[in-house]
Amino acid sequence: MPEELDSTPYDALLLLSFGGPEGPDDVIPFLENVTRGRGIPQERLKEVGRHYYLFGGVSPINDQNRALLDALRKDFAEHGLDLPVYWGNRNWAPYLTDTLREMAAAGRRRVLTVATSAYASYSGCRQYRENLAEALATLESEGLEPPRIDKLRHYFNHPGFLEPMIDGVLASLADLPADVRDGAHLAFTTHSIPQASADTSGPVEGHGDGGAYVAQHLDVARLIADAVRERTGAEHPWRLVYQSRSGAPHIPWLEPDICDHLEELHAAGAPSAVMVPIGFVSDHMEVKYDLDTEATAKAEELGLPVRRSPTVGADPRFAAAVRELVVERAATERGLPVRRCALGELGPSHDVCPVGCCPARAPKPAAAGADSPYA
Question: Which pTM value belongs to this model?
């Protein structure tokens, strides 16, 4: 029997994710949930919906989360961590409020949450915390006692997140034709966000109150590129690029776009490229469509050999990383010394988001932070 690990004071873990449609009839209602309050016309929703219909109206993210749930529960059981794992989504079933209602009814009082987003930004962290606060307020209005929720720190530089991506790049390089393999460029991709949001993401050591989103991705890209060089003996040029922009044309967003970058690589004579989606935990629609469909079609048009390396998904090393982060945070809450595992130049992220971290244009209450009404 494994030695029992102590998660005290926590009595549950919540896997917090984005959600996605699971059939053609779900697509437009799901997109309405995602864009509620933004005044997006139905015509635009139908245009985006076509991406989902190419895959039968099903986003892969929910099945990815089911696989991750299974991996977490298996890892916890094998390592003696007696902590139930729940799952709630922002935009589709199982909805976050319903899951928290279930947890409150089961008597869960201290909950840790891990979001399927590894980096600091409004959409990747603060918005999830706002959703948590809104759901907890709903429970309180129903006469239920809302649990206290803490959020695991950003895990972008944890070895259990990095190692699966390193192996994925190595496998993708090996899959390229031998005559274009050694000169392959690495295009590290992540979700483009407004430049203003990127500038106020954080804080991060050496970057003041903002700039964490780009700095964290650059650190991850550098770590993976260095590991690939050490294991293959080949130096692969790399760049951080962006995808999935959805904002108004007049608002500056992070660039270059992956398709523009592929054109630049081809024009410069690059023999091949590997697209490495470091900004995404699993193969959801923005990976399956924006990279596997749109960017791959662009590469074929150019005659540029490309491969897309896998996301971390439910890799057992990632499940183990979550377990380690749970035990680390629990020990910290009990006042015990802990070893905070992190690679790269930036070190481990903060446990508690400070006041004003990753602000929105119209701030809302947010749980799991220094300014949380549910702390």
Answer: 0.95
